[in-house]
Amino acid sequence: MSKLPETVFFANLSAKTGTPLKDQLYSQLRKAVLTGKLAPGTRLPASRQLAAQHSVSRNTILAAYEQMVAEGYMETRQGAGTYVSTQVPDYFTEPAQTKPQQGSATQAMPTVSKNTYPDFTLRSGAPALDQFPLDLWARLTSSAWRTAGAHTLMHDDLAGYAPLRRAIASYLKASRSVEAGPDQILIFSGLQQGFKIAAECLLAKGDAVILENPGYHGMAQVAATLQQETLFTAVDNNGAIPPTTTKRGMLVISPSRQYPLGMTMPLHRRLKLLNWAQETSSYILEDDYDSEFRYSGRPLNSLQGIDGGKHVIYGGTFSKSVFPALRLGYLVVPAGLVPKFITHRAAVDSYPSIVPQIALASFMESGHFARHIRKLRKTHARRKHIFTNAFPTYLGAYLDLEPSDAGLHMVARLKASLLPEICTRHDPVPPDVSIAKLAQNIGIGAFALSGTYRYQKTGNTHSDGQTSGVELRTHHQGILLGFANLPDDQIEPLLARFAQALEKKIN
Amino acid sequence: MSKLPETVFFANLSAKTGTPLKDQLYSQLRKAVLTGKLAPGTRLPASRQLAAQHSVSRNTILAAYEQMVAEGYMETRQGAGTYVSTQVPDYFTEPAQTKPQQGSATQAMPTVSKNTYPDFTLRSGAPALDQFPLDLWARLTSSAWRTAGAHTLMHDDLAGYAPLRRAIASYLKASRSVEAGPDQILIFSGLQQGFKIAAECLLAKGDAVILENPGYHGMAQVAATLQQETLFTAVDNNGAIPPTTTKRGMLVISPSRQYPLGMTMPLHRRLKLLNWAQETSSYILEDDYDSEFRYSGRPLNSLQGIDGGKHVIYGGTFSKSVFPALRLGYLVVPAGLVPKFITHRAAVDSYPSIVPQIALASFMESGHFARHIRKLRKTHARRKHIFTNAFPTYLGAYLDLEPSDAGLHMVARLKASLLPEICTRHDPVPPDVSIAKLAQNIGIGAFALSGTYRYQKTGNTHSDGQTSGVELRTHHQGILLGFANLPDDQIEPLLARFAQALEKKIN
Q1: CA distances to B81, B428, B467 from B1, in Å
Q2: Contact A336, A308 (CB under 8 A)
Q3: Chain A residues lying within 8 Å of B336, measured CB to CB
Q4: How far, in Å, are A145, A225, B437, B460, B462 from residue B230 at the CA level?
């Protein structure tokens, strides 16, 4: 392994604060890693050199480095120095700090707060949050509470707030052809919680969880906390390919609009997948994460509606149709499995707070939810049009925007010519990750496409080879960009700034 | 195994509804089991007999029985007939229906709704919900939303809403001597979720979870979903006895007020437990579930404060100090472990909805939380006085109320003379479970003390012997009764009704 050049790192160490110098250094190093200031793979200065720079003992530096290594933030490579770990979870390294930290750098408590995210505009997956009727929401919430009683305070319906479940059932029937009574709907704090509980409930030892590849990294994170083997199935032009494994398991797919690539699964593929589920006695978790937003044509009916609720668990979220911090989603569970789910969820989490459930039920019952979705659909379509028109003008030299007629993000592929220009031999970071970070630095909530792939071997169903990260394949190089969460007139100027930043990096 | 007498069961079957008869029967049987109408261990009528009674084919009966057996609601015993399973989760069987079911008994969808709970008064563990300032809460919530922005809608601080964490940190410092900065506080939807995430985060293969015996059944339910071996440690007059195991693990205890027995752990026992944790490199989860309510003397400082946040994870809940359906709790995590917790919780559940977090932060920051606790403490003390005074008058012949100076429930032991009177040889249900059910039938949220014990063997640390339920030990026979959640003038009349019901059952 050849030595990479060292990064430069200056700590702000003061003997006067009462905090030991090694703790100060540790805390600042950690912050630098968590905020992405020290990128994964970066080589740290030699301890001797850093000690000299700061006029402190080398033991101080070594102690801080050791703690960082022990906690997995850094790693030593035999004879080659100390590096920022490439295994630091994306969650911490992806969002770069866009605001200066408050307070001095020597404040003792390291922060893992994510207060930087909300400033990200054009964030992949975010709806038009500026269109959310905050005043109306405040009024509805307040009036729901004024009419609540001790009944509400002691609410104990483990499936979720009944009026909310009824509202969801009728919405799903009308809009997604999902066949389910309110008693089959379980409210969760999100689809990741739903997936974890479904897997823990339904899978036995030896069963597998099977994820799309590429796919939503959140589901892969859940899978890593389960006891089941995680397998992956590749995606072709028709979406997820039926798994070749004959194992019983739970397959998580996004047939309405594959994440991240965006294709809609045609009926023949849906039937093949249902057939697989039947033959292997498996379950399919249908992740219908942004089906509310289709800008042309009609959506296909849900897989759940075709299956009739035998093998399919349908999952939806309000993160995109209401707002992400609401943290409410739901599963539609086959009727016979409901008691099992409720017993399990009672054990691990009871039910989500009644407070957002009341508010959302009132928002849905009053018709405001349906109106809001219609309004969002129009706003999103308009912003997508502006975004798509402006994109080639500013970024056409570097990125090819793939067409899409639904959802809240688009995929922009890196032009082949860009790859060598931006990716140096010494840079351990894939080029699309560099570009996504560059976008984040100017406030664009972009994600690297390569981050949604998680395997090594080709072929169909295969085990997760997590040992050395993502292979650099040209057709995996792209970035996911949202188009919805920025006022119309700010979209073009932001794309122009992105293009400038890219040019500056290249030249 | 001797044959028990069969129960009588009449189904309401109609050929006109379009639902197959076997489905109608299955649905009604399930409802009867879930609502406790058919108690665990009850012997079902022979299929031939039930078929004759209803003039349907025996195959119809067999098909419904088979489905019930397949789903675990019933079990067959070789040559002895079909029985309601003794393994049906307590969650379904404990709350008896106090309201008539709406609609006809042949409605297809089985309900597992728990809409009956809210009607329970004097519920063990419930605070005085009639004292909650609903109007104020509505006003605070509404104004918090009016001043929110897109920032709030996209909130992405995985530790929880920062103003709430700050408010909790200062509350804990002042009231519980818990030493922790806001960055060590993680908001969860409750302590059970907190326990599950802590265990999944910190325990490795071969580590154990160790629970108090008797203890809170919710924690045992969580333990059953973990991959770790569950051990139990007995409770003496000083609370949980230090585990004899030398295994590394996570011990869950309630030192401020042992659940359910109520003793406060003295300092010498606390030190012994901390010593055990240090020696075995284990963690202690300090469940401080109702420490807000102490009616005489001063509470001991938290275990976390003594430990200094090395081995102890401190957990609190707002279920008792605000209201149960708020579903917000928190863990105070040693600083070095925070990133690990956040990564894990990001994977499995992101964070609880911002909606209750905003409301609670506003409730705390405005000083209303502290005022509300003071008001509750007075109300609870007054109701406890009324309850304790009236109890012997009405129930002294059957139950001995144990003194207690804190919390939200008291333990009433069954008088020895009562045991044979209420417990017949044919009754597979422990006498205190019968009495708790009887109380529930008249709207009292009582729990059986024997349900908080979960073992077979005596001795100190021992494996869970879940095979045949709870042993009938006299000193495990009692009921847990709340005293807080009923207006002052209704307490005595309800105790009188309870006494009448008991008398009627005995005579």
Answers
A1: 11, 13, 16
A2: no
A3: 71
A4: 41, 19, 29, 13, 9
| Residue whose token pair is 């890593």 | A224
Q: How far is it, in rounded angstroms, from Cα B409 to Cα B431? A: 20
Neighbours of A490 (CB within 10 A): 13
Query: How many residues does this entry show for chain B?
Result: 507
Residue B6 backbone phi and psi in degrees, to 5: -75, 150
Could you identify the residue written with the tokens 């540790």?
A26
DSSP state of A423: -
Tell me if A254 sits within 8 A of A302, measured CB to CB: no
- The answer to whether the CB atoms of B355 and A355 lie below 8 A apart is yes
CA distance A31 to A361: 40
SS3 call for B27: helix
Cα B165-B166-B172 angle, rounded to 5 deg: 85
Q: Which helix (H) or strand (E) holds A316?
A: strand A312-317
Sheet holding B409-414, edge to edge: B399-401, B409-414, B478-482, B447-448
Q: What is the DSSP letter of B77?
A: E
8 Å CB contact of A327 and B338:
no
pLDDT tens per residue, range A185-236? 999 999 999 999 999 999 999 999 999 999 999 999 999 999 999 999 999 9
Q: DSSP E strands: which ranges in B248-323?
A: 249-253, 283-287, 312-317
| ∠ Cα A176 A181 A186 (to 5°) | 85
Indicate if the alpha-carbon torsion angle B6, B10, B16, B18 is positive or negative: negative
Identity of residue A131: Q
Per-residue pLDDT for B104 more than 60?
no
Q: What is the pLDDT of residues A292-319, one digit of tens each?
A: 898 887 667 789 988 888 999 999 999 9
Task: Classify the complex by whether its ipTM is higher than 0.90, answering yes or no.
Answer: no
Structure token digits, residue A161: 């707030």
* Count of alpha carbons within 13 angstroms of residue B163, beta-carbon side: 15
- Number of other CB atoms surrounding residue A503 within 10 Å: 11
Q: How far is B234 from chain A (nearest CA, A)?
A: 22
* Token representation of residue A268: 């023949």
3-state secondary structure of B290: coil
Q: Rounded to an integer, what distance in angstroms lies between the CA atom of residue B87 and that of residue B84?
A: 9
Please report the residues numbered 327 through 386 in chain B whose beta carbons come closer than 8 angstroms to any beta carbon of chain A. 327-328, 335-336, 338-339, 342-344, 346-356, 359
For B363, other C-beta atoms within 10 Å of its C-beta total 26
If you average pLDDT over residues B204-217, what whole number do you get? 95
**Quick one: pLDDT band at residue B112, thresholds 50, 70, 90?**
very low
pLDDT-derived band at B14 (thresholds 50, 70, 90) equals confident
The Cα–Cα gap between A214 and A228 comes to 20
Peptide bond into B100 cis (omega under 30): no
- Among A109, A154, A218, beta carbon nearest to B325: A154
Smallest Cβ–Cβ distance between A183 and the set B109, B183, B222 belongs to B109
> CA A400, CA A378: separation in Å to the nearest integer?
25
Q: Which helix (H) or strand (E) holds A487?
A: none
**What separation in angstroms does the CA of A385 have from each of A371, A388, A412, B434, B500?**
21, 5, 15, 67, 74
Domains of chain B: 5-88 (1.10.10.10), 157-366 (3.40.640.10), 378-506 (3.90.1150.10)
Pairing relationship of beta strands A283-287 and A249-253 according to DSSP bridges: parallel
Q: Strands, DSSP E only, in A39-80?
A: 74-77
Q: How far is CA B163 from CA A44, B135, B167, B292, B364, in A?
A: 35, 22, 6, 21, 10
Integer Cα distance of A479 and A468 in angstroms: 21
| Contacting A residues, span 65-104, partner chain B, CB-CB under 8 Å | 71, 89, 91-92, 95
